[in-house]
Amino acid sequence: MAGPANPAAPKGGFNKLFVMVPVMLAARKLDAEDPKTVQLLRIAYGSMQTICVLIVVYTFLKASSLKDASSIIYVPAPPTVRPTPISVIWLSY
Prior knowledge:
The protein is mainly alpha-helical. The protein has helices spanning 17-29, 35-65. The protein has a domain at 32-65.
C-alpha cells in the first residue's frame, strides 16, 4: 500500500508480492514427496543462486575495473544541525 496512507512504503518498482504470490501458489501444486520433483527444485534453486552470485561478481569486477585515480569526486559532508537546549524547570510542591 504505497501512497499517502503509508509514506514509508516503496514507490513503484519490484514488489515482494510479484515473487511471493506465485511461490505460494506453486507450493501447493508441487508434490514435495516425489524425489524427481524435489531434485528439480534443488537444481532450480542452485541455478538461481549461481546466477545471482555471478551477477554480483560481474558487477564487482566491472566496478573495480573502472577505478580511475585521476578523477576524484568529493562529496560534501551533510550539514550538521545543532540541537536546541531544553531548559527544565523543577518545581517542588
